Amino acid sequence: MLVPSDMLAAQSKMLYQINKYYGERVQQRMGTIAKTIREVCKVVQDVLKEVEVQEPRFISSLTECNNRYEGLEVISPCEFEVVLYLNQMGVFNFVDDGTLPGCAVLKLSDGRKRSMSLWVEFITASGYLSARKIRSRFQTLVAQACDKCSYRDSVKMIADTTEVKLKIRERYIVQITPAFKCSGVWPRSAAHWPIPHIPWPHPNLVAEVKTEGFDLLSKESIAIQGKQSAMEGDAWVLSFQEAENRLLQGGCRRRCLSILKTLRDRHLDLPGNPVSSYHLKSLLLYECEKHPRESEWDESCIADRINGIFLQLISCLQCRRCPHYFLPNLDLFKGKSASALENAAKQVWRLTREMLTNTRCLEKL
């Protein structure tokens, strides 16, 4: 196919601008965050060491491997989540029957005695392992650990929340979330994935992702707030963090996500937080389905993919609904105000128009 030379010139200009933006703005953001992570993790590791002394069942799983911290997620440059993996889920059955969107419960297996569980005092009368009870105990331990640890002058617990949140050096917020890793199983609520007849992801990658499994987190879920269910506090939130990261390997997918996150931090960090980096990550996964061929994720296509994701985002903001990638019944905008979403739609449209009409836009973005 013949492509007009002026179109090729515009494309190569845009590619040059994107590479320059990545080398300057994006790398700078990544460098700053890497430095913050090291600083924050030193404090969190010290707090968790104190927790472990008081209660050996909460063993710190925050370890560094190949310059990455296992279980650490960057929410924004000043906000992080650390997932603390708990042991011995074995005596429980995993149940997700769809009654609580995005959540599941852990029920004592038939024939198993409570006393066989490491977490015996957190099992409800109906035989469910309560996420809220475990978190409440963990919160008490972390509060005590903050007073005892060697960083006690620079770390404090954030009150007025059932989550375990620390404020470090008055600048950074870290949420520590107790969790179970569920490997080798796949939730029924995500059974529709992958969509048939789409060449992405490759069957081998699907098999890897499903073997990797998912996590069950003990945290508040906006999806079930207000549901007057006895299960609400006992339920665990499904997380597909590892699966999502695995799917984004290959081509310029990760590079694309890093650019989107940088643009978000600089231009879409809005009141009410209507657009998070997780929204962008979810829409990037949908974009992978829309453009399933690897050639469509070559670096020469990166501007088209970013524009495609922003157009998807505008549509979601206008419809006031952003479906979770693995659990499309779960709306990631739930709890966001209509005015915050409307304002964000305008801002994203400004940004997208600039990207579509000006090949030198990244010089000032």
TrEMBL record:
Mab-21-like HhH/H2TH-like domain boundaries: 252-350
Domain of life: Eukaryota
Stored Pfam families: Mab-21, Mab-21_C
InterPro entries in UniProt: Mab-21-like_nuc_Trfase, Mab-21_HhH/H2TH-like, MAB21L/cGLR
Stretches assigned to the Mab-21-like nucleotidyltransferase domain: 68-250
Family: Belongs to the mab-21 family.
The protein, known as: Protein mab-21
UniProt organism field: Cryptolaemus montrouzieri
